[in-house]
Amino acid sequence: MKPIVLMTDSKPYKDERVEIIHLPLIGIQALPIQTILPHYDWLIFTSKNAVDIFFNNYQSTQFDKIAAIGSKTKAYLEQNGYSVDFVPTAFHQECFIEEMNNRFDGLNVCLPVSSKARPKMYNALKSCANVDKIDLYMPIENKVNLLKAETLIIENKVNWVTFMSPSSVLAYENHAWFEAVSVMAIGSVTSQALESIGIAHYVSAYETKESMIDTILKIENERKGEC
Predict the structure, then answer these.
(1) Would you state the pLDDT for residue 175?
(2) What is the mean pLDDT of residues 48-77?
(3) Per-domain residue ranges of the chain
(4) 209-to-7, 8, 13, 224 alpha-carbon distances in Å
(5) Which of 36, 81, 91, 147 is 20 to 30 Å apart from 177, CA to CA?
(6) Residue 10 has what pLDDT?
(7) Whole-number Å distance between alpha carbons of 170 and 141
């Protein structure tokens, strides 16, 4: 029997090796448009949501180059006709900071993000560049899906829950389901969020959904003594 995996992020995913139930725990609410510069040397995107909202709401903004965190965000930008000039080798702020070197020094940079985004990258950029951080949107709990997820877990209809962001972890925190199911984090940042609220979990070998499923199947086989 295939493991039943509840995926809690916003983008559906398919993998024939498992049965996936897709219930996003977090939605987004766009925030009011802010006054920004007419031109930037760099735009920096950390998610596909940021790409959509920024280019819908700030259409007249000119820019020279684009940086992105993550291959999915890079691919999404390219699908929409934008060239991406810098992507870190790992998909999190710490790697971005480590690898950005001096490419932003003294330049005008626009960082459109969630209002709940971690401040580490903004603080690092602010120390070397002129940075406008735009709070594009705020995450909001999807209460309907939270109730559905709770019911599935309580009724033992789910084997695993996967988390791709600290925001979804915080939504999950308010419900006492975590002892009844195995939990998987996509990477170190989400893992830290789970650790901070005392949820035992596993961490994917690599920061991709495919790797999450690989890791889940490896653990399932080990549990069955099929290593």
Answers:
(1) 65
(2) 94
(3) 4-25+142-223, 29-139
(4) 9, 12, 8, 23
(5) 91
(6) 84
(7) 9
